[in-house]
Design goal:
single chain, alpha+beta, four-stranded antiparallel β-sheet, 7 helices, 45% helix, globular
Length: 219
């Protein structure tokens, strides 16, 4: 069982909210708070009992993320071939983000949760997340990369479950992007496994022009 209302955790989250909304550039002094919060939540979430409870959400999130990335991958190639027929040397970048709204499936809800979610999703505060879910897809450099390769399913065993209970998750085929969110960002695992919606950004190398923004999910 995860104690989202633990007083120590609440104090840390309150400090994060306060600093973020007082001065969004105050990341350096708050890095230890984000790390401490992540550690406290993951210490609870990664016990075998808690992982068994969270397993359906881990599976559902991994599936939803894979579907979203496949949509992004296909759409990026479609846009690239359309544009490269007109501008042969075009370069296109596709990025995927968790939806901007605090997950409605999260078991802990409250008026303050969106403000906290804004802070931990901010690219200045969560720096590995500065280009979205690691890593962007770049074309034409990635034209020869299959979708399985993009999500890390082309290497044995095809399961990026480091840090999780290896027995419980041995057959889940967790994708590389799941691992990147879990192991390399400031997100606790419970920050993202309740997400089912995603946002894409497709852009050209011309920074003045945003090509397209699309969403993918249950809505």
């Amino acid at each position: 069982m995860i104690h989202y209302d633990d007083p120590t955790l609440y104090y840390i989250e309150d400090e994060i909210r306060y600093i973020y909304h007082k001065d969004v550039t105050g990341y350096p002094q708050s890095e230890f708070l984000l790390d401490l919060r992540r550690r406290l939540l993951n210490d609870q979430a990664l016990t075998r009992e808690s992982q068994e409870e969270l397993l359906p959400h881990i599976i559902a999130f991994n599936d939803a993320l894979r579907d979203a990335l496949k949509h992004m991958y296909d759409r990026a190639h479609e846009l690239y071939f359309q544009m490269s027929a007109i501008v042969p040397d075009i370069e296109l970048t596709a990025k995927c983000w968790l939806a901007y709204d605090y997950p409605s499936l999260h078991p802990y809800q409250g008026e303050d949760r969106q403000g906290l979610y804004d802070a931990i999703c901010d690219s200045g505060w969560n720096r590995i997340y500065d280009n979205g879910i690691p890593f962007p897809l770049g074309l034409p450099d990635g034209l020869d990369q299959s979708f399985d390769s993009f999500i890390g399913m082309d290497c044995p065993p095809p399961n990026w479950n480091e840090g999780l209970n290896m027995e419980l998750t041995k057959d889940l085929h967790l994708i590389r992007q799941f691992h990147q969110l879990f192991d390399h960002t400031k997100f606790a695992i419970t920050d993202f496994i309740f997400c089912r919606d995603f946002v894409f950004e497709f852009s050209t190398m011309n920074e003045e022009k945003l090509l397209n923004i699309e969403s993918h999910g249950n809505d």
